Amino acid sequence: MLVLTLSGLLALTSFISCVSAQLASGYSIGPLTTSSAKWAVKVCDVTKYGAVADKSTDLGPPLLAAFEACIDGGVVNIPVGDFAMSTWVTLVGGSAWAINLEGVIYRTGTAGGNMIYIEHSTDFEIYSSRSSGAIQGLGYEFHSQGEYGPRLLRLYDVINFAVHDIALCQSGEVYNMIIRGANEGGLDGIDVSGFNMHIHDVEVTNKDECVTVKNPSNHFLIENIHCNWSGGSCFGSLGLDTDIYKITYSNIYTLSSNNMMMLKSNGGNGSVSDCLFENFIGHSNAYSLYIDAFWTDLTLQPGNGVLYTGLTFSNWKGTCAAGNTRPPIYLNCPSTEPCTGIVIEDFAMWTDSGSAEYYKCIDAWGEGECLRGGSAHTAYGTSTITVTAAPDVLQALANAYTRTSRTGYSAAKMPNDLATPFDISSSIPIPTIPTTFFPGATPATKRAYP
């Protein structure tokens, strides 16, 4: 599996200027020491420790040596050039340090695991000061043989950190980034769990998770995300002792993906609560808004089911692929733990094929569309609504009656939408980091290098 795994983390990004209610007050976000201050302390250039930009000499040992030299503060510098990496490194500890990746690291080793694994560290960032750095996993060499390669980058128990302005090809992570994988399941983008995260301005191409929240998690702000032929964004899979709350997804653009947002579980217990999903644009996705409490890819877990409660879905626009067979609203909640307090408002999706679509709610209570009104929190079975006219037409009639001017399902597109996904048998080209990740939105943090 090619995935950036983030767990037990305090923060993802730095230098943010906006504050959200879903982020926890009183806690810093990102590195505590500025990049310039780290450069002033010490620079540990990998070429001084044996690295050669010849696309042949192994970068692994020089990278480890450079880290050990800068473990107490400074910058591990990987300069412009093509570097091969055949042995993986685990970088343990460190404080007030950084990796500046200007060159391109090409995977030449064949081991599994993690190419670069950073753990038990504080005040850290990995970035490219010129936005030219990349890690090329060459995953097609594995995928074409029906196998999976290593993760490119993994962070565990890292406090006050940022990952930004680099490209990961055939893997993933957490602002001003582009992550590209082939069109095959198991090639995750960003999987994250923890506390007080800000993930923003990221583009993901793959056929698995785009930006996915794992258990346990709380106080996340995830915004300006471009799922460009992907599996889509998710919560889960969730089972025992689920504890997820105060998560905001905002400005999420999803093209030709499995879903725009899916919350998935199978049995289990605990809850997902007090979350907001606003300003979603979708084009030609299989599912749009999807809660599945019977996700059979996960073995049935003990318990009455995960409770989904206090979730708001607001301002969703665009199209689904076939709304007459896969409803753009599909809430499949457990009868033993019905969904409650769900709000769906300003939802306008229309089908690419056919002339009708339907919404389906099973044991789901709340306000809007097919939800059962009230707060009884008891099982009732299935409620469906059939829609036989595009929301633009319905909205025009509603506007005439209410004298409002809300829009229908029409939604903008991104200029860099892919026409087709990436094949598993070919190398994925290293892209340029985009300057926007959601229509009309400016990145919260400008690129390190224009």
UniProtKB/TrEMBL annotation:
Biological process terms in GO annotation: carbohydrate metabolic process; cell wall organization
Domain of life: Eukaryota
Signal peptide interval: 1-21
Gene Ontology molecular functions: polygalacturonase activity; rhamnogalacturonan alpha-L-rhamnopyranosyl-(1->4)-alpha-D-galactopyranosyluronide lyase activity
InterPro entries assigned to the protein according to its UniProt record, in alphabetical order: Glyco_hydro_28, Pectin_lyas_fold, Pectin_lyase_fold/virulence
Keyword Disulfide bond: yes
UniProt keyword terms in alphabetical order: Cell wall biogenesis/degradation, Disulfide bond, Glycoprotein, Glycosidase, Hydrolase, Lyase, Secreted, Signal
Gene3D superfamilies for this protein: Single-stranded right-handed beta-helix, Pectin lyase-like
GO cellular component assignments: extracellular region
Pfam families, sorted: Glyco_hydro_28
Entry's localization field: Secreted
Family: Belongs to the glycosyl hydrolase 28 family.
UniProt-recorded name of the protein: Pectin lyase-like protein
